[in-house]
Amino acid sequence: MPTEKVELVKGVYWVGAIDWMLRDFHGLWTPRGGTYNAYLIIDEKITLIDTVAPNFTDELLDRIRTIIDPAKIDYIICQHVEPDHSASYARLIEVAPKAKIVTSKRGAEYLSAHYPGIDFPYKIVEDGGTLSLGKRTLQFVAVPMVHWPETMVSYLVEEQLLFSNDAFGMQIASSQRFADQVEEWYEPLRSYYSYIVRWNARPVLKALEKTKDVPIKIIAPSHGLIWRKDLGKIVEIYKRWSSSPEKPQALVVYSTVWGSTRKMAHAIREGVASTGVPCEIFDLERDPHSRIQGAAMEAKAIAVGAMTYNVDPYYPTQAFMPYIKHLRPTDKIGVAFGSYGWGGGATSDITKQLTAMKFGEVLDPLDVKWRPTEEDLKRCFELGKKLGQKVKAAF
Ligand SMILES: Cc1cc2nc3c(=O)[nH]c(=O)nc-3n(C[C@H](O)[C@H](O)[C@H](O)COP(=O)(O)O)c2cc1C
Ligand SMILES: [Fe+2]
Ligand SMILES: [Fe+2]
After folding, report:
1. Are residues 311 and 224 located together in one domain of the fold?
2. Within a domain: residue 106?
3. Which residue is closest in CA terms to ligand 1's atom 15?
4. For 51, 151, 324, 355, which has the most beta carbons within 10 A of its beta carbon?
């Protein structure tokens, strides 16, 4: 039974749920758990912003009860229909019989499709529309494709508080609710962005442009930590990730059966490092792909390795290719490498894929037959060195 009350500003409470055991959020690796944030505004009209994932409705209701009887809720704002935020509506309209579900036209359409047979009491709002809560006003801003078509964010005008839904969110379970109380937020934020948001980078930039003159003191997302300090910094990070996320660093990823491709990978990494460019290396069979994807997003150059397995790149590399594609890697330098036994095939396939993803530059692949010789490893080192030099030249 939760007892803590988290107040963002007077009369605005966090009432979400913490999933301490979450380790995988539809494929996003969440080593530190997750959070579904909902917010309660106490005014003449009692207003709930978003709800929580399936199985967490009781926690949400318990938290609301520490502040007010849920039956008193007048408005439930549905910013985004994805079930991690909408799963509680069916229960809520029973518990809060006078509540209206406030959403966009599309939001209502999508909600009805998700929960057939439930007659939600909708109140439809337009882009830019407002809703008076009494002393305070909510304004709604459509942010289509951040990251679904119906997504909107809500601005509590008098408090300069933006409820940003999935934008600026991350998956992390923490006893602290504010980003300035937690040191290690960068990587969870980056993973969430690269896995869920980066594909829609352009709509994010549009949304940032649309809200750029709005004074904001607090950003309250629907996952993870709340931003109340250095907001300029976090907005800049989002802008950078949505335009050119690349930093002067490189990445080597590979999969192998008998270790030859791993040897090549390490020689390539050494070559990059010899130029002073930082370079991480990941075995695609050992590390969660969504973790690697965050590193890939910020890498200027990526060397993608696979041994040839029945003419194709070995499965873990095949499986990772869409993670690269969904980063929209048009400013990156790419190269394929790998070991084969007879006809090969892996590296030409990877090269084709990198080219189809519109990499800024794709170098000729590097193949090694069976085990790499000292001479082969030198070629790998030289390839890494070339990558490192290209990365340096790009900044
Ligand atoms: C199940 C299996 C299928 C393979 N298929 C091919 C192939 O179609 N063409 C080829 O050139 N080599 C093929 N090979 C050989 C490997 O590519 C070769 O052993 C390579 O050196 C392995 O690299 P690794 O040590 O990085 O795993 C195959 C190997 C295995 C185990
Ligand atoms: Fe979402
Ligand atoms: Fe979400």
Report:
1. no
2. yes
3. 341
4. 51
